[in-house]
Amino acid sequence: MEHDMGYDLEDALKREGLSREDLKALRNPPIEGVPTTITDKQLACFLDACDKNIDETRKVLKIYYDIRKTSPELFSNRDPLSAPIQQCLQNQDYFPLPTTPSGYSVVFHRLKNSRASNYQFDEAIKTYFMTIDSCLYSQGPRPGIIFLFDMKNVGLMHLTRINMSSVRKFFSYLQEGLPAKLKAIHVVNVVSFFDKIMYIIKPFIHAEILNMLYLHTSNANFEKFYDEWIPKSCLPSDLGGDLKSIDELHQDHMKEFERQRNYFLSEEGQRNGEPNKGEESTEKMLRSLSID
């Protein structure tokens, strides 16, 4: 099944204390709007995110698929090789980082350059959600997930690119449909006009999420951050870490995105009842290349 995830299920069940009996319980009765072809690996992420609560997991599963169905601008046409996604990958950096000593997944994002005209808001959100999915695909269910944003190249003109409807859907998905336990949102190199950004997004953020938001200015002392959240061993060299540079890590992840292409195409086909969507998309691309 190409729409299945790549992590080791047995390791994940043991690590997170999940049971196959609970996975079976999620299938009966079927949940309206949830594909009957959903795999145990997919279900395990939701079950873990909901602390093994079956009723809550069923609720989140429905919300997850409802949001993806009603928000095609953020969840459809997710071919990593498509022109819009490639445009995002050329102008922004996206990648998961290694899991922390506490077992948390970390997803990093920043703008590669400061030119606002290169920033396509909906496509950027789509690519960010794909990066979260890529992280879950490889790392599976974890004790939590941390979002790490770098605002180094963000300018006031970027605010004019924001789509308010997509902002609402972005936070709705993160707060109600995310198949992972959100533990923290860290923002580094915070810009002086961050209050204007908060004015835009605050109406859509639950108090619980606001309490998870940590802001770090460019001259902040990061020693506490390294000790309590993400150690240097799990961070890019640009942020004082021991890993490769942000650009190198992003280039590595672009290759990973390409390797996961069939998963993204097949997962979308799974949601839409088109099990061979990945193969069909590849055939269309090859025909297009032949015509060109």
Let me know the number of strands: 5
The helix content is 40-55%
From N to C, what is the helix and strand string?
HHHHHHEEHEHEHHEHHHH
**How is the main sheet built?**
5 strands, mixed
Global geometry = globular
Number of helices: 14
| Computed CA radius of gyration, to the nearest angstrom | 19 Å
Strand order of the largest sheet: 1-2-3-4-5
User: Could you say which structural class the secondary elements and strand pairing correspond to?
Assistant: alpha/beta
Note poorly predicted spans. 285-292
Give the overall average pLDDT: 93
The CA-CA distance between the termini, in Å, is 32 Å
Strand content: 5-15%
What does this structure look like?
The chain is globular. Helices cover 50% and strands 10% of the residues. It is α/β, with parallel strands linked by helices. β2, α7 and β3 form a beta-alpha-beta unit. It has 14 helices and five strands. The chain has a five-stranded mixed beta sheet with strand order 1-2-3-4-5.
